[in-house]
Amino acid sequence: MSKIKTHYQCQSCGAKFNRWMGRCSSCGDWNTLTEEKIQDAGKLGEAAKLTLTQSAPIQLNEVSGGEEYRILTADEELNRVLGGGIVPGSLVLLGGEPGIGKSTLLLQTARQLPMPVWYVSGEESARQIKMRADRLPSQDNQVVLFTETELNRLLRQLKEALPPLVIIDSIQTLYDAEIESAPGSVSQIRHCAAMLMRLAKEEGIALFLVGHITKEGALAGPKILEHMVDTVLQFEGERHHAYRLLRTLKNRFGSTAELGIYQMQTDGLHGVNNPSAFLLTPAHRRQSGTAIAASLEGNRPMLIEIQVLVSRAAYGTPQRSATGFDNRRLNMLLAVLEKRLGIQLSTMDIFLNVTGGLKTDDPAVDLAVCVATLSSFYDKAMPDKTCFAAEVGLGGELRPVSRVDMREQESKRLGFNYLIKARDFVEDNGSKSAFETLSELTERLFGSNS
Ligand code: TYD
Ligand code: MG
Asked: Sheet containing 348-354: which strands, arranged edge to edge?
């Protein structure tokens, strides 16, 4: 008999303890410790023996290599976020909320690849997967479905078939029968991922792991895998909007500044190669309270529409609420508007919305947020063909942002003549659309009202 140890493990941060506590002393979360039984690592049995091989030290310059070979998928957005395609033997974690489209993305990618791809699902039956697949555009494909959830049986089959690409949907449904904790618990997830990784690295199998993540990013089963895998992709967007953003959070084989944009349609996910055009309301329908920001999402310049509604608060404390933009940042910008422009917002309800269900954290959006607020406050629409890109400081000063040239190009391409930005004192070229402070710009935009 192998020795069985017990410990209590936090399901949120993965910290281990010898005794149970109501609150994890490592991350501070309540009620997250569960009892987990784990066998000695040395006695993990079959699965471990299956993948154990010897390795020897080797001179770095004797290692063959150079340009890494990549599997190119038919999906340009996915190739881009992966840094130019799938690297054989690499481990990719695809995280996102349930229902966002992870299974759809991977299944449609698998069907378009001219090589055997194993789609291992513990979430849906083969019939359900087939029904989903039938919605997607049909392609010649060599997808093998496998609805196995026990790790050792899965490893055995993979060892035999050695497919070049394996998709595990999801890592939370996989379990090793030799470990006593429930599927989806921290120790199962960590162990299953480690065993799969070993096989993948030894046999050069590329592996996609799907992981469900809740809205708060908590219940971080898959989060504990982030340091183990080569690439972490995050699929985000509002479930009721058609747009989905695929972000690279970590990539050993490329930049983390990449972004893929998709639209969910009745026949699967479609890459969007002209996102700005999709995201903007036509100019003649834009009302007061709207400003266009020339933002940069990852490496991609993108025009996004900021809408703000300022209205007199009916009851006591005024409401402040932002969708797609950081609430605290909104509060800060409102305080700057009050203090530096002297306008009274403290009795107003203020709602902000980034259209299309996008989320942005580009500081260059600050100025559009301020302008949209003022536009709603004075009930005056902004001139069309004008967009904004500058960070706003606490003193009400406009601060230059990165890659203004790229933002300018994108705005020109979409028919915007003016990009309002911060005056850059280093490279001052006397541009008429560059301003030093919010009040200088407000004077120009709202002159007679303010
Ligand atoms: P799914 O890929 O199952 O999400 P996840 O694996 O991240 O949980 O996506 C499910 C949603 O996508 C579901 O609400 C239905 C919708 N959908 C479409 O709109 N069009 C399609 O072609 C498919 C396959 C799904
Ligand atoms: Mg799914």
From this structure: 320-323, 348-354, 300-312, 290-297, 386-389, 418-422, 434-435
